[in-house]
Amino acid sequence: MEFNHADLFEGLADAIGDRVAVVCGAERLTFAELDAHANRLAHHLLEQGVEPGRHVGIQLYNGIEYVAAMLAALKIRAVPVNVNYRYVEDELRYLYTDSDIVALLYDVEFERRVAAVAPDAPELRHLVAVGGEPGIPAAVPYRRALEGMPATRGFPKRSGQDVYIIYTGGTTGMPKGAMWHVEDLFMAFGGGNPYGEPRATPQEVIDEAAKANPMIMMAVAPLMHGAAQMATFIAWWMGATIVYVRKFDAAEVWRTVERERVFTMNITGDAMARPMAEALAAGSYDVSSLFVISSTGAILSGAVRDRLQELLPNVMILDNFGSTESGYTASGVAGSRPENGLRYQPNATARLAVLDDKLQPVRPGELGTVAKSGHIAFGYYNDPGKTAKTFVTDADGTRWLLTGDLATVEPDGTITVFGRGSQCINTGGEKVFPEEVEAVLKGHPKVFDAVVTGIPDERWGSRVAAVVEPRPGESVTAEELDAYCRGRLSGYKVPRTYAFVAEMVRSLAGKADYRWARQTAQAAAGG
Hints:
Layout: H1 5-15, E1 20-24, E2 27-30, H2 31-47, E3 55-59, H3 64-75, E4 79-82, H4 89-99, E5 101-107, H5 111-117, E6 126-130, E7 140-141, H6 142-146, E8 163-168, E9 176-181, H7 182-188, H8 202-211, E10 216-219, H9 226-237, E11 241-244, H10 250-260, E12 264-267, H11 270-282, E13 292-295, H12 302-311, E14 316-323, E15 327-332, E16 342-346, E17 351-355, E18 368-373, E19 379-380, H13 384-390, E20 391-393, E21 399-409, E22 415-420, E23 425-427, E24 430-432, H14 434-441, E25 447-457, E26 461-470, H15 478-486, E27 497-500, H16 514-524
Parallel strand pairs: 1-11, 3-4, 3-5, 5-6, 6-7, 10-11, 10-12, 12-13, 13-14, 26-27
Antiparallel strand pairs: 1-2, 8-9, 9-19, 14-15, 15-16, 16-22, 17-18, 18-21, 20-21, 21-22, 23-24, 25-26
Helix pairs in contact: 1-2, 1-3, 1-8, 2-3, 4-5, 10-11, 11-12
Protein backbone atom coordinates (compact mmCIF):
# COMPACT_ATOMS: atom_id res chain seq x y z
CA MET A 1 0.00 0.00 0.00
CA GLU A 2 2.69 2.47 -1.00
CA PHE A 3 1.79 5.89 -2.40
CA ASN A 4 3.26 6.58 -5.83
CA HIS A 5 2.25 9.53 -8.00
CA ALA A 6 2.16 7.58 -11.26
CA ASP A 7 0.11 4.75 -9.73
CA LEU A 8 -2.34 7.24 -8.24
CA PHE A 9 -2.77 9.13 -11.49
CA GLU A 10 -3.40 5.92 -13.42
CA GLY A 11 -5.98 4.94 -10.82
CA LEU A 12 -7.73 8.27 -11.36
CA ALA A 13 -7.59 7.85 -15.13
CA ASP A 14 -9.39 4.52 -14.74
CA ALA A 15 -11.95 5.84 -12.23
CA ILE A 16 -12.74 9.34 -13.55
CA GLY A 17 -11.29 9.15 -17.04
CA ASP A 18 -13.91 11.41 -18.63
CA ARG A 19 -13.34 14.24 -16.13
CA VAL A 20 -11.13 17.13 -17.32
CA ALA A 21 -7.69 16.89 -15.72
CA VAL A 22 -5.82 19.86 -17.17
CA VAL A 23 -6.51 23.11 -19.03
CA CYS A 24 -4.00 25.53 -20.52
CA GLY A 25 -5.38 28.15 -22.88
CA ALA A 26 -7.47 26.43 -25.53
CA GLU A 27 -6.03 23.00 -24.73
CA ARG A 28 -7.77 20.63 -22.33
CA LEU A 29 -7.40 16.91 -21.70
CA THR A 30 -9.41 14.51 -19.58
CA PHE A 31 -7.67 12.19 -17.12
CA ALA A 32 -7.91 9.34 -19.64
CA GLU A 33 -6.59 11.48 -22.50
CA LEU A 34 -3.69 12.80 -20.44
CA ASP A 35 -2.86 9.27 -19.30
CA ALA A 36 -2.72 8.05 -22.91
CA HIS A 37 -0.66 11.08 -23.94
CA ALA A 38 1.84 10.53 -21.10
CA ASN A 39 2.02 6.80 -21.93
CA ARG A 40 3.12 7.59 -25.48
CA LEU A 41 5.84 9.91 -24.25
CA ALA A 42 6.92 7.37 -21.62
CA HIS A 43 7.32 4.67 -24.27
CA HIS A 44 9.34 7.07 -26.39
CA LEU A 45 11.70 7.77 -23.49
CA LEU A 46 12.08 4.04 -22.85
CA GLU A 47 12.86 3.50 -26.52
CA GLN A 48 15.61 6.13 -26.22
CA GLY A 49 17.21 4.24 -23.34
CA VAL A 50 15.95 6.30 -20.41
CA GLU A 51 16.12 3.80 -17.56
CA PRO A 52 14.62 3.84 -14.07
CA GLY A 53 16.46 6.29 -11.85
CA ARG A 54 17.79 8.38 -14.74
CA HIS A 55 16.95 12.07 -14.94
CA VAL A 56 14.74 13.84 -17.49
CA GLY A 57 15.01 17.63 -17.75
CA ILE A 58 11.94 19.76 -18.51
CA GLN A 59 12.67 23.25 -19.85
CA LEU A 60 9.19 24.35 -20.89
CA TYR A 61 6.58 27.00 -20.37
CA ASN A 62 3.33 25.84 -18.78
CA GLY A 63 1.27 23.50 -20.92
CA ILE A 64 0.01 20.00 -21.58
CA GLU A 65 3.51 18.91 -22.56
CA TYR A 66 4.93 19.86 -19.16
CA VAL A 67 2.52 17.76 -17.11
CA ALA A 68 2.77 14.91 -19.64
CA ALA A 69 6.57 14.98 -19.27
CA MET A 70 6.36 14.81 -15.47
CA LEU A 71 3.96 11.88 -15.62
CA ALA A 72 5.91 10.10 -18.37
CA ALA A 73 9.11 10.20 -16.32
CA LEU A 74 7.34 8.96 -13.18
CA LYS A 75 5.60 6.17 -15.10
CA ILE A 76 8.94 4.63 -16.11
CA ARG A 77 10.50 5.33 -12.67
CA ALA A 78 12.73 8.02 -14.13
CA VAL A 79 13.15 11.35 -12.31
CA PRO A 80 11.66 14.61 -13.67
CA VAL A 81 13.97 17.61 -13.22
CA ASN A 82 12.62 21.16 -13.50
CA VAL A 83 14.82 23.56 -15.50
CA ASN A 84 14.40 27.30 -15.01
CA TYR A 85 13.74 28.68 -18.49
CA ARG A 86 15.08 32.09 -17.47
CA TYR A 87 18.56 30.72 -16.91
CA VAL A 88 21.37 32.02 -19.09
CA GLU A 89 23.97 29.71 -20.58
CA ASP A 90 26.31 29.46 -17.58
CA GLU A 91 23.42 28.67 -15.23
CA LEU A 92 22.02 26.08 -17.64
CA ARG A 93 25.44 24.49 -18.06
CA TYR A 94 25.66 24.10 -14.29
CA LEU A 95 22.15 22.67 -13.97
CA TYR A 96 22.38 20.27 -16.92
CA THR A 97 25.66 18.92 -15.50
CA ASP A 98 24.78 18.93 -11.80
CA SER A 99 21.47 17.15 -12.37
CA ASP A 100 22.94 14.48 -14.71
CA ILE A 101 19.96 14.72 -17.09
CA VAL A 102 20.06 12.15 -19.89
CA ALA A 103 17.10 13.60 -21.82
CA LEU A 104 15.67 17.09 -22.15
CA LEU A 105 12.31 18.37 -23.33
CA TYR A 106 12.69 22.03 -24.26
CA ASP A 107 10.62 24.79 -25.81
CA VAL A 108 11.94 25.84 -29.24
CA GLU A 109 11.98 29.44 -27.99
CA PHE A 110 14.96 28.43 -25.83
CA GLU A 111 16.81 26.58 -28.57
CA ARG A 112 19.73 28.99 -28.94
CA ARG A 113 20.70 28.48 -25.29
CA VAL A 114 20.03 24.74 -25.42
CA ALA A 115 22.20 24.37 -28.53
CA ALA A 116 25.04 26.27 -26.87
CA VAL A 117 25.00 24.28 -23.64
CA ALA A 118 23.77 20.74 -24.40
CA PRO A 119 27.12 19.57 -25.88
CA ASP A 120 28.79 20.39 -22.54
CA ALA A 121 26.45 18.17 -20.48
CA PRO A 122 28.22 14.81 -20.19
CA GLU A 123 25.12 12.65 -19.63
CA LEU A 124 22.67 14.41 -21.97
CA ARG A 125 22.05 12.35 -25.09
CA HIS A 126 18.45 12.94 -26.19
CA LEU A 127 16.54 16.16 -26.99
CA VAL A 128 12.83 16.61 -27.64
CA ALA A 129 11.72 19.99 -29.04
CA VAL A 130 8.27 21.31 -28.15
CA GLY A 131 6.33 23.98 -30.02
CA GLY A 132 7.85 23.77 -33.49
CA GLU A 133 10.52 22.29 -35.70
CA PRO A 134 13.94 22.14 -34.03
CA GLY A 135 17.06 23.69 -35.48
CA ILE A 136 19.29 21.26 -33.57
CA PRO A 137 19.79 18.32 -35.97
CA ALA A 138 19.70 15.65 -33.24
CA ALA A 139 16.53 16.97 -31.61
CA VAL A 140 13.21 15.16 -32.17
CA PRO A 141 10.01 17.20 -32.63
CA TYR A 142 7.55 16.46 -29.83
CA ARG A 143 4.75 15.35 -32.14
CA ARG A 144 7.11 12.90 -33.86
CA ALA A 145 8.26 11.53 -30.51
CA LEU A 146 4.67 10.49 -29.80
CA GLU A 147 3.91 9.09 -33.26
CA GLY A 148 3.55 5.33 -33.33
CA MET A 149 3.99 4.99 -29.57
CA PRO A 150 1.37 2.89 -27.74
CA ALA A 151 -1.19 4.69 -25.59
CA THR A 152 -1.28 1.71 -23.23
CA ARG A 153 0.83 1.21 -20.09
CA GLY A 154 2.85 -1.92 -19.46
CA PHE A 155 5.49 -0.22 -17.29
CA PRO A 156 7.62 -1.69 -14.49
CA LYS A 157 6.19 -1.96 -10.99
CA ARG A 158 6.74 1.20 -8.99
CA SER A 159 7.51 2.01 -5.36
CA GLY A 160 6.90 4.67 -2.74
CA GLN A 161 10.69 4.96 -2.64
CA ASP A 162 10.92 6.18 -6.23
CA VAL A 163 12.71 9.53 -6.41
CA TYR A 164 11.42 12.99 -7.30
CA ILE A 165 13.81 15.96 -7.56
CA ILE A 166 12.87 19.63 -7.40
CA TYR A 167 15.61 22.13 -8.15
CA THR A 168 15.20 25.26 -6.07
CA GLY A 169 17.09 28.46 -6.80
CA GLY A 170 16.78 30.08 -3.39
CA THR A 171 18.03 33.64 -2.98
CA THR A 172 21.78 33.25 -3.51
CA GLY A 173 24.10 30.96 -5.41
CA MET A 174 23.38 28.18 -7.86
CA PRO A 175 20.26 26.00 -7.58
CA LYS A 176 20.20 22.79 -5.57
CA GLY A 177 18.14 19.68 -6.20
CA ALA A 178 15.96 18.63 -3.27
CA MET A 179 15.51 14.85 -3.40
CA TRP A 180 12.29 13.24 -2.22
CA HIS A 181 10.92 9.75 -2.01
CA VAL A 182 7.52 10.04 -3.67
CA GLU A 183 5.58 8.66 -0.69
CA ASP A 184 7.12 11.30 1.59
CA LEU A 185 6.39 13.94 -1.05
CA PHE A 186 2.76 12.81 -1.24
CA MET A 187 2.36 13.01 2.54
CA ALA A 188 4.22 16.32 2.93
CA PHE A 189 1.87 18.03 0.49
CA GLY A 190 -1.46 17.05 1.95
CA GLY A 191 -1.53 13.26 1.76
CA GLY A 192 -4.39 13.43 -0.72
CA ASN A 193 -6.50 15.49 1.71
CA PRO A 194 -5.06 18.95 2.46
CA TYR A 195 -8.03 19.79 4.72
CA GLY A 196 -7.71 16.88 7.13
CA GLU A 197 -6.02 13.59 7.92
CA PRO A 198 -3.98 12.00 5.11
CA ARG A 199 -5.69 9.25 3.13
CA ALA A 200 -5.05 5.81 4.60
CA THR A 201 -4.60 3.95 1.30
CA PRO A 202 -4.06 4.76 -2.38
CA GLN A 203 -7.52 3.33 -3.14
CA GLU A 204 -9.04 5.79 -0.67
CA VAL A 205 -7.46 8.66 -2.62
CA ILE A 206 -9.08 7.40 -5.81
CA ASP A 207 -12.46 6.67 -4.21
CA GLU A 208 -12.69 10.09 -2.54
CA ALA A 209 -11.62 11.87 -5.73
CA ALA A 210 -14.31 10.00 -7.67
CA LYS A 211 -16.98 11.03 -5.14
CA ALA A 212 -15.90 14.68 -5.02
CA ASN A 213 -17.80 17.46 -6.72
CA PRO A 214 -15.16 18.50 -9.31
CA MET A 215 -13.53 21.84 -8.52
CA ILE A 216 -11.60 24.10 -10.86
CA MET A 217 -8.22 24.94 -9.33
CA MET A 218 -5.56 27.20 -10.81
CA ALA A 219 -1.77 27.21 -10.41
CA VAL A 220 -0.66 30.68 -11.47
CA ALA A 221 3.08 30.08 -11.02
CA PRO A 222 5.19 28.39 -13.70
CA LEU A 223 5.41 24.61 -13.51
CA MET A 224 9.18 24.91 -13.31
CA HIS A 225 8.47 26.06 -9.74
CA GLY A 226 7.85 23.23 -7.26
CA ALA A 227 4.79 24.97 -5.79
CA ALA A 228 2.94 24.74 -9.12
CA GLN A 229 3.90 21.08 -9.55
CA MET A 230 2.61 20.25 -6.08
CA ALA A 231 -0.57 22.30 -6.64
CA THR A 232 -1.18 20.15 -9.72
CA PHE A 233 -0.95 16.87 -7.83
CA ILE A 234 -3.01 18.20 -4.93
CA ALA A 235 -5.76 19.16 -7.37
CA TRP A 236 -5.73 15.74 -9.03
CA TRP A 237 -5.82 13.86 -5.71
CA MET A 238 -9.02 15.83 -5.00
CA GLY A 239 -10.51 14.90 -8.37
CA ALA A 240 -10.23 18.51 -9.52
CA THR A 241 -9.27 20.16 -12.80
CA ILE A 242 -6.00 22.12 -12.76
CA VAL A 243 -5.76 25.25 -14.91
CA TYR A 244 -2.69 27.22 -16.07
CA VAL A 245 -1.74 30.17 -18.21
CA ARG A 246 1.22 29.48 -20.47
CA LYS A 247 3.17 32.52 -19.24
CA PHE A 248 2.34 34.75 -16.30
CA ASP A 249 0.29 37.74 -17.40
CA ALA A 250 -1.96 39.30 -14.76
CA ALA A 251 -4.78 40.23 -17.14
CA GLU A 252 -4.71 36.76 -18.71
CA VAL A 253 -4.94 35.21 -15.25
CA TRP A 254 -8.21 37.06 -14.59
CA ARG A 255 -9.56 36.26 -18.06
CA THR A 256 -8.86 32.61 -17.33
CA VAL A 257 -10.58 32.79 -13.93
CA GLU A 258 -13.64 34.21 -15.67
CA ARG A 259 -13.62 31.76 -18.58
CA GLU A 260 -12.93 28.58 -16.58
CA ARG A 261 -14.87 29.57 -13.44
CA VAL A 262 -11.85 29.02 -11.21
CA PHE A 263 -12.68 28.25 -7.55
CA THR A 264 -9.24 28.24 -5.90
CA MET A 265 -5.98 29.81 -6.99
CA ASN A 266 -2.35 29.31 -5.91
CA ILE A 267 0.09 32.22 -6.30
CA THR A 268 3.57 33.06 -5.02
CA GLY A 269 3.75 36.26 -2.99
CA ASP A 270 3.83 39.92 -3.95
CA ALA A 271 5.53 39.29 -7.30
CA MET A 272 2.22 37.90 -8.57
CA ALA A 273 -0.27 39.46 -6.18
CA ARG A 274 0.71 43.06 -6.91
CA PRO A 275 0.33 43.02 -10.72
CA MET A 276 -2.80 40.89 -10.35
CA ALA A 277 -4.34 43.47 -8.02
CA GLU A 278 -3.50 46.28 -10.43
CA ALA A 279 -4.90 44.38 -13.42
CA LEU A 280 -8.08 43.58 -11.50
CA ALA A 281 -8.52 47.24 -10.53
CA ALA A 282 -7.94 48.41 -14.10
CA GLY A 283 -10.16 45.85 -15.84
CA SER A 284 -13.61 44.33 -15.68
CA TYR A 285 -13.75 40.63 -14.93
CA ASP A 286 -16.35 38.23 -13.57
CA VAL A 287 -14.48 36.59 -10.69
CA SER A 288 -17.58 35.53 -8.77
CA SER A 289 -16.51 31.87 -8.92
CA LEU A 290 -13.31 32.55 -6.96
CA PHE A 291 -13.37 31.50 -3.30
CA VAL A 292 -9.74 31.09 -2.18
CA ILE A 293 -6.36 32.60 -3.09
CA SER A 294 -3.47 30.78 -1.44
CA SER A 295 0.07 32.17 -1.46
CA THR A 296 3.04 29.85 -1.03
CA GLY A 297 6.77 30.11 -1.63
CA ALA A 298 7.04 33.87 -1.04
CA ILE A 299 5.66 36.37 1.44
CA LEU A 300 2.59 38.53 0.91
CA SER A 301 3.28 41.95 2.39
CA GLY A 302 0.51 43.61 4.35
CA ALA A 303 -0.04 46.43 1.87
CA VAL A 304 -0.38 44.11 -1.11
CA ARG A 305 -2.59 41.68 0.76
CA ASP A 306 -4.85 44.52 1.90
CA ARG A 307 -5.22 45.82 -1.66
CA LEU A 308 -6.08 42.38 -2.99
CA GLN A 309 -8.58 41.83 -0.19
CA GLU A 310 -10.17 45.23 -0.88
CA LEU A 311 -10.70 44.23 -4.51
CA LEU A 312 -11.90 40.72 -3.57
CA PRO A 313 -13.87 41.19 -0.34
CA ASN A 314 -15.57 37.78 -0.56
CA VAL A 315 -12.40 35.78 -1.25
CA MET A 316 -10.32 34.05 1.43
CA ILE A 317 -6.64 35.02 1.11
CA LEU A 318 -4.35 32.49 2.78
CA ASP A 319 -0.63 32.55 3.56
CA ASN A 320 1.01 29.13 3.75
CA PHE A 321 4.42 28.34 5.21
CA GLY A 322 6.68 25.65 3.82
CA SER A 323 9.55 24.99 1.46
CA THR A 324 10.69 22.72 -1.34
CA GLU A 325 12.43 20.53 1.24
CA SER A 326 9.71 20.49 3.92
CA GLY A 327 6.39 20.53 2.11
CA TYR A 328 3.36 22.43 3.34
CA THR A 329 3.78 22.81 7.10
CA ALA A 330 1.76 25.73 8.53
CA SER A 331 -0.96 28.28 7.81
CA GLY A 332 -0.88 32.00 8.49
CA VAL A 333 -2.75 33.23 11.56
CA ALA A 334 -5.37 35.89 10.79
CA GLY A 335 -3.94 39.38 11.07
CA SER A 336 -0.27 38.42 10.97
CA ARG A 337 1.93 40.53 8.70
CA PRO A 338 5.64 40.52 7.82
CA GLU A 339 5.85 44.09 9.16
CA ASN A 340 5.70 42.67 12.70
CA GLY A 341 6.58 39.00 12.25
CA LEU A 342 4.49 36.39 10.50
CA ARG A 343 2.58 34.07 12.82
CA TYR A 344 1.76 30.57 11.65
CA GLN A 345 -0.30 27.70 13.04
CA PRO A 346 1.52 24.40 12.39
CA ASN A 347 -0.52 21.77 10.56
CA ALA A 348 -1.89 19.06 12.82
CA THR A 349 0.09 16.40 10.94
CA ALA A 350 3.31 18.40 10.51
CA ARG A 351 6.10 17.53 12.93
CA LEU A 352 7.29 21.11 13.28
CA ALA A 353 9.54 22.59 15.99
CA VAL A 354 11.78 25.56 16.70
CA LEU A 355 15.21 24.30 17.79
CA ASP A 356 18.31 25.83 19.35
CA ASP A 357 21.91 25.13 18.32
CA LYS A 358 21.85 21.84 20.28
CA LEU A 359 18.70 20.67 18.43
CA GLN A 360 16.58 21.15 21.54
CA PRO A 361 13.19 22.92 21.47
CA VAL A 362 13.43 26.58 22.45
CA ARG A 363 11.31 28.06 25.23
CA PRO A 364 8.57 30.58 24.34
CA GLY A 365 10.10 33.87 23.31
CA GLU A 366 13.55 32.44 22.51
CA LEU A 367 14.82 32.67 18.95
CA GLY A 368 15.61 29.42 17.15
CA THR A 369 15.52 27.71 13.77
CA VAL A 370 12.34 26.25 12.33
CA ALA A 371 12.81 22.50 11.84
CA LYS A 372 10.68 19.66 10.56
CA SER A 373 10.91 15.89 10.97
CA GLY A 374 8.90 13.05 9.51
CA HIS A 375 7.99 13.42 5.83
CA ILE A 376 10.83 15.56 4.50
CA ALA A 377 13.25 15.51 1.57
CA PHE A 378 16.18 13.18 2.11
CA GLY A 379 19.00 15.33 0.74
CA TYR A 380 20.39 17.47 -2.06
CA TYR A 381 21.49 15.84 -5.28
CA ASN A 382 25.26 15.90 -5.78
CA ASP A 383 25.78 18.01 -2.64
CA PRO A 384 26.68 15.91 0.42
CA GLY A 385 28.05 18.96 2.25
CA LYS A 386 24.83 20.92 1.98
CA THR A 387 22.87 17.77 2.83
CA ALA A 388 24.87 17.20 6.03
CA LYS A 389 24.40 20.83 7.09
CA THR A 390 20.64 20.94 6.42
CA PHE A 391 19.49 17.44 7.43
CA VAL A 392 20.67 16.65 10.96
CA THR A 393 19.98 13.98 13.58
CA ASP A 394 19.46 14.78 17.26
CA ALA A 395 20.57 12.76 20.30
CA ASP A 396 17.34 10.74 20.24
CA GLY A 397 17.86 9.67 16.65
CA THR A 398 15.22 11.99 15.13
CA ARG A 399 16.21 13.33 11.73
CA TRP A 400 15.41 17.03 11.25
CA LEU A 401 15.33 19.39 8.31
CA LEU A 402 16.70 22.79 9.37
CA THR A 403 14.77 25.25 7.20
CA GLY A 404 17.01 28.24 7.90
CA ASP A 405 14.05 30.33 9.04
CA LEU A 406 14.45 32.02 12.42
CA ALA A 407 11.41 32.06 14.67
CA THR A 408 10.03 32.08 18.19
CA VAL A 409 7.33 29.89 19.72
CA GLU A 410 4.31 31.59 21.26
CA PRO A 411 2.57 30.27 24.40
CA ASP A 412 -0.41 29.15 22.28
CA GLY A 413 1.81 26.94 20.11
CA THR A 414 1.90 29.22 17.07
CA ILE A 415 5.28 30.24 15.68
CA THR A 416 6.37 33.74 14.69
CA VAL A 417 8.75 33.63 11.73
CA PHE A 418 11.05 36.60 11.27
CA GLY A 419 13.02 35.59 8.19
CA ARG A 420 15.91 33.61 6.80
CA GLY A 421 18.87 33.49 9.13
CA SER A 422 21.26 33.66 6.17
CA GLN A 423 19.84 37.06 5.20
CA CYS A 424 19.62 38.52 8.73
CA ILE A 425 21.62 41.78 8.96
CA ASN A 426 23.78 42.30 12.03
CA THR A 427 24.24 46.05 12.40
CA GLY A 428 26.10 47.08 15.54
CA GLY A 429 24.95 43.92 17.31
CA GLU A 430 21.28 44.43 16.43
CA LYS A 431 19.52 41.88 14.22
CA VAL A 432 17.45 43.19 11.31
CA PHE A 433 15.30 40.88 9.24
CA PRO A 434 15.01 42.13 5.63
CA GLU A 435 11.42 40.88 5.26
CA GLU A 436 10.15 43.28 7.93
CA VAL A 437 11.81 46.33 6.36
CA GLU A 438 10.78 45.29 2.85
CA ALA A 439 7.15 45.02 3.92
CA VAL A 440 7.22 48.54 5.38
CA LEU A 441 8.82 50.01 2.27
CA LYS A 442 6.28 48.33 0.00
CA GLY A 443 3.54 50.02 1.99
CA HIS A 444 4.69 53.45 0.70
CA PRO A 445 2.30 54.63 -2.04
CA LYS A 446 5.13 55.46 -4.43
CA VAL A 447 7.00 52.14 -4.03
CA PHE A 448 6.30 49.22 -6.34
CA ASP A 449 8.90 46.78 -4.97
CA ALA A 450 11.75 46.70 -2.48
CA VAL A 451 14.55 44.34 -1.45
CA VAL A 452 16.60 44.96 1.69
CA THR A 453 20.11 43.67 2.31
CA GLY A 454 23.19 44.34 4.39
CA ILE A 455 26.31 46.03 3.01
CA PRO A 456 29.68 46.63 4.76
CA ASP A 457 29.92 49.54 7.18
CA GLU A 458 33.15 50.62 8.90
CA ARG A 459 31.43 51.59 12.14
CA TRP A 460 28.55 49.13 12.45
CA GLY A 461 29.96 46.11 10.59
CA SER A 462 26.92 46.06 8.33
CA ARG A 463 24.35 48.68 7.48
CA VAL A 464 20.80 48.24 6.23
CA ALA A 465 20.45 49.07 2.52
CA ALA A 466 17.37 49.04 0.30
CA VAL A 467 16.98 48.57 -3.43
CA VAL A 468 13.72 50.23 -4.46
CA GLU A 469 11.65 50.10 -7.64
CA PRO A 470 9.26 53.10 -7.71
CA ARG A 471 5.75 52.72 -9.06
CA PRO A 472 5.45 53.43 -12.80
CA GLY A 473 5.28 57.17 -13.37
CA GLU A 474 6.27 57.96 -9.77
CA SER A 475 9.45 59.42 -8.32
CA VAL A 476 10.44 58.90 -4.72
CA THR A 477 13.45 60.14 -2.78
CA ALA A 478 15.58 58.62 -0.06
CA GLU A 479 14.46 61.42 2.26
CA GLU A 480 10.80 60.54 1.75
CA LEU A 481 11.43 56.87 2.45
CA ASP A 482 13.58 57.65 5.48
CA ALA A 483 10.81 59.71 7.05
CA TYR A 484 8.23 57.05 6.21
CA CYS A 485 10.30 54.22 7.74
CA ARG A 486 11.19 56.14 10.90
CA GLY A 487 7.52 56.39 11.73
CA ARG A 488 7.13 52.62 11.48
CA LEU A 489 10.48 51.03 12.41
CA SER A 490 13.08 51.26 15.15
CA GLY A 491 15.92 53.54 14.10
CA TYR A 492 18.48 50.75 13.66
CA LYS A 493 16.19 49.02 11.14
CA VAL A 494 15.81 52.07 8.88
CA PRO A 495 17.85 51.81 5.65
CA ARG A 496 20.90 54.07 5.52
CA THR A 497 21.51 53.52 1.81
CA TYR A 498 19.00 53.50 -1.04
CA ALA A 499 19.46 52.36 -4.63
CA PHE A 500 16.67 53.13 -7.08
CA VAL A 501 16.18 50.79 -10.05
CA ALA A 502 13.85 50.68 -13.04
CA GLU A 503 13.16 46.98 -12.58
CA MET A 504 13.74 44.62 -9.66
CA VAL A 505 15.48 41.30 -10.23
CA ARG A 506 13.39 38.46 -8.81
CA SER A 507 12.84 34.82 -9.62
CA LEU A 508 9.53 33.74 -11.16
CA ALA A 509 8.67 32.41 -7.73
CA GLY A 510 8.91 35.95 -6.38
CA LYS A 511 12.13 35.30 -4.46
CA ALA A 512 14.53 38.19 -4.14
CA ASP A 513 18.00 37.96 -5.66
CA TYR A 514 19.92 39.15 -2.60
CA ARG A 515 23.30 38.78 -4.24
CA TRP A 516 22.24 41.17 -7.01
CA ALA A 517 20.61 43.51 -4.47
CA ARG A 518 23.79 43.63 -2.38
CA GLN A 519 25.91 44.48 -5.42
CA THR A 520 23.41 47.14 -6.52
CA ALA A 521 23.27 48.72 -3.06
CA GLN A 522 27.06 48.73 -2.70
CA ALA A 523 27.40 50.44 -6.07
CA ALA A 524 24.91 53.11 -4.95
CA ALA A 525 26.94 53.60 -1.76
CA GLY A 526 30.10 54.03 -3.79
CA GLY A 527 31.56 50.74 -2.60
